[in-house]
Amino acid sequence: MIKLSSGPIEPGALFDAFRRSAANAGAVAAFVGVVRGEGEEGVTALELDHAPQLTLREIERAADEARRRWPIIDMAIVHRVGRVGVGEPVVFVATAAEHRRAAFQSCDFLVDFLKTDAPFWKKEIGRSGERWIEPTAKDYADRDRWR
Amino acid sequence: MARIVFYGRLADKMGRERTIALGPDGQSVQGLIELLSGGDQELRRSLSDPSVKFAVNDTVGPRDARIGDDDEIAVMPPFSGG
């Protein structure tokens, strides 16, 4: 399942549903990204812009790449769009495989992809104003581990 | 008229959408940048930055790709998800 959601996402329910759909898997890895409150900058929310068709298509492409690289039984990717408050989940990724290494690595790969190569644009909304965020050198280095 | 859609910080600057006539022979992406910036050097620099990607009909392409009046072009600053 690959989905963009304009409403809140519930990782617990998503994980339970994923476990049921991947009943034959010996290993399930899951990641939940949560909006951080950046201390002194007083961030209260993120606003996530996206390009509806292109964003989904690019995530599908990364999912295909993950399936080529690891023997994945199933995967789920749910990404929020629009305004997401501090403390709320912004992304849920789960992968299932026969063994743990494929589940861990494919989940890690997909999260790195979402951070730097998926068409999302993230704006921090804070008490002192708004600013667009771009990936850091660390984000790109994390992504480049998979090249 | 080609439909130009801006995302992220570029949508704040340019508005979400513009339509623009590219003429009977169309334009390259670089030609579109010239039309959009209309002599505004700062905007021209900003759109010409290699980190800004252009997708023609939902496919990211090179700067010399030809585009015409039936096309939709997405103008995209660096991505930042998750």
3D architecture notes:
- The complex is a heterodimer of chains A (147) and B (82).
- Chain A has four helices and eight strands.
- Chain A has 147 residues and is α+β, with helices and mostly antiparallel strands.
- Chain A has a single domain, classed as Aldehyde Oxidoreductase, domain 3 (Alpha-Beta Complex).
- In chain A, a hairpin with a 2-residue loop joins strand 7 and strand 8.
- In chain A, helix 2 runs antiparallel to helix 3.
- Chain B has one domain: Ubiquitin-like (UB roll), CATH 3.10.20.
- Helix content of chain B is 28%, strand content 29%.
- A five-stranded mixed β-sheet of chain B has the order 2-1-7-4-5.
- Chain B is globular.
- Chain B starts with a strand and ends in a 6-residue tail after the last strand.
- Chains A and B meet through strand 3, helix 2, helix 3 and strand 7 of A and helix 1 of B.
> Strand-residue fraction of chain A?
35-45%
Helix and strand content put the structural class of chain B at alpha+beta
Approximate shape of chain B:
globular
CATH homologous superfamily of chain B?
Beta-grasp domain
Biggest beta sheet attributes of chain A: 4 strands, mixed
CATH topology of chain A: Aldehyde Oxidoreductase, domain 3
Structural class of chain A: alpha+beta
Tell me how many strands of chain A there are: 8
Which key phrases capture this entry?
heterodimer, A: 147 residues, alpha+beta, Aldehyde Oxidoreductase, domain 3, 4-stranded mixed β-sheet, 37% helix, 37% strand, B: 82 residues, Ubiquitin-like (UB roll), 5-stranded mixed β-sheet, 3 helices, 29% strand
Give the structure's gist in a few sentences.
The complex is a heterodimer of chains A (147) and B (82). With 147 residues, chain A is an alpha+beta fold.
List the topology elements:
The complex is a heterodimer of chains A (147) and B (82).
Chain A: E1 2-5, H1 11-21, E2 27-34, E3 43-50, H2 52-69, E4 72-80, E5 82-85, E6 89-97, H3 100-116, E7 120-126, E8 129-133, H4 137-144
Parallel strand pairs in A: 1-4
Antiparallel strand pairs in A: 2-6, 3-5, 3-7, 4-6, 7-8
Helix pairs in contact in A: 2-3, 3-4
Chain B: E1 2-6, H1 9-14, E2 17-20, E3 27-28, H2 29-37, H3 41-48, E4 53-56, E5 59-60, E6 66-67, E7 72-76
Helix pairs in contact in B: 2-3
